[in-house]
Give the backbone structure.
Amino acid sequence: MNGIRVMPDQDEWRAGFEERVLAGYRAAGCSEPLSRALLERALKGVDGWTVATDGAGWIAVGVAEDNGATVGRIHDLTAAEPDAATAARTWAERWCAERGAERVEVRLTGGAGAGAGSEPGPAAAATGTATATLFAGYRVRGQNRLRAAAEHPALPPGLTVRPLTAEEYPGWYAGEQAAYVADIVRAGALTPEQAKAKSDEDFARHLPQGHATPGHAFYALEADAQVVGTGWVNHGYLPGVTFGFSLEVYEEHRGKGYGRAAMSVGEWAARQGGDGALMFNVFGGNEVAMSLYDRTGFAVLDEFRSLPL
């Protein structure tokens, strides 16, 4: 992609970008209403992006503040040839660095079935026709995963599920916050101090009324009269989708098949809330969880990667 020039407006690029985003989500098995809801999220801040072209392909980039850091983002990259794609990525990284970005991030969309160590198919959204090969040097920070819930999911034998009580909630909350901070730091996204600030902000936003926050459900998973894990879901998070904020099996009970069982509990919870699919996020660096999600059929909607500048 030589002779790259910034375009004065987005009109010519915009329609193609939106169709690539939709195609990626449709390929990952999303319904049309869900695909369009995800498109709306993907377009957040689009009017502030910079769009460039060499006449054959497109690049869309932007810079924003994120938890105290200046972050560059490659929102779109299309190129017909590998050399042109590499040139476009290099241009985008330099553009971000010149504007003070400390790292550059990219979202690979529509990589259904891709897990740790594997390559998504053509990313028909945030990176256009580029594949994960182009961003192989970028560290995986996280993935959004989705699967349609079984129509009549059954809880695994020997496992019971009950609502988490108000008395159990404070201890659960403290443990969830600590685990969230550890996940963020392990993924390499933020420092421990930044991760703690993000955790405080995110929990306050999602659970403004704590245990009584509407649309949210909290569960205790029990086996042999012991609590072996917990679940936290948000019904109606997106059209027809329950979001699993946490499906946790306590460390001392891992290796007993409860991880796979927790996925069944998530599907059961989605149907309990009137939704047909379960969606959740997994942080980079958690290859064990990614492998489990591959085996249980959760498609990759988005994979987020980043590179320090």
Notes: The chain has seven helices and twelve strands. The longest strand covers residues 226-238. Residues 112-130 have pLDDT under 50 and may be disordered.
